[in-house]
Amino acid sequence: MREAVLRSGARVEWMACDPELADTAQFCAAYGIDPADSANTIIVVGKADPPVYVACVALATTRLDVNSAARKRLRTKKASFASADETRSLTSMLIGGVTAFGLPSDMPVWVDAAVMQRESIVLGGGSRSWKLRCSPEVLLSIPSVEVVAGLAREAGSE
After folding, report:
1. Looking at the chain, which terminus has fewer C-beta neighbours within 10 angstroms, N or C?
2. What is the SS3 assignment for 119-149?
3. Any domain includes 156
4. Quick check: is 109 in a domain?
5. Rg of the chain over CA atoms, in angstroms?
6. What is the pLDDT of residue 6?
7. Contact 76, 52 (CB under 8 A)
8. Structural domain for 76, as ranges
9. Distances (CA, A) of 147 to 6, 23, 32, 155
10. pLDDT at residue 1 above 70?
């Protein structure tokens, strides 16, 4: 994934991470990162034949609206979070390290609009050993990216 980030020309700070602390809550607590600045890349699968996949980027303080916003945009009757095995198979990355960079070229990347309001964000770095700190505008360097208002909701607002 490092090569994909370098190819993008994005200016990022690479942050080493203990793989045992890569999950968002543990990472933020251990490294002093505000969860409002942590952006998770989550693979969503639209239940169709064949299935359709999208990478969604949302702040850790929000909940991705899979059953409404993502499902409707995917134009499928059902959608869910991809399993850890599906995520690894599709992206070659493990949960806790998934990043929006270096994904398959046919996989769209949807970024919740709230992510773009942050001064800087911390993303997965392609493995559980790395995170990326960058300006959210860096995500706009991804060819398949689209900023989507209402893709995620504030946690607890369901």
Report:
1. C
2. CCEEEECCCCCEEEEECHHHHHHCCCEEEEC
3. no
4. yes
5. 14
6. 62
7. yes
8. 2-150
9. 22, 24, 27, 19
10. no
Which CATH number is 8's domain given?
3.90.960.10
By CB neighbour count within 10 A (0-12 exposed, 13-18 middle, 19+ buried), where does 96 fall? buried
Pairing of strands 52-59, 109-112: parallel
Q: How far apart are CA 97 and CA 22, in angstroms?
A: 7
Q: What does the DSSP 8-state code read for residue 18? A: -
**What are the tokens at 49?**
């034949």
- For the chain, the domain total comes to 1
The pLDDT tens digits for 99-155 are: 999 999 999 999 999 999 999 999 999 999 999 999 999 999 999 999 999 999 987
Query: Token pair for residue 59?
Result: 């702040």
Report DSSP state, residue 83: P
In a domain, 85, yes or no: yes
In a domain, 155, yes or no: no
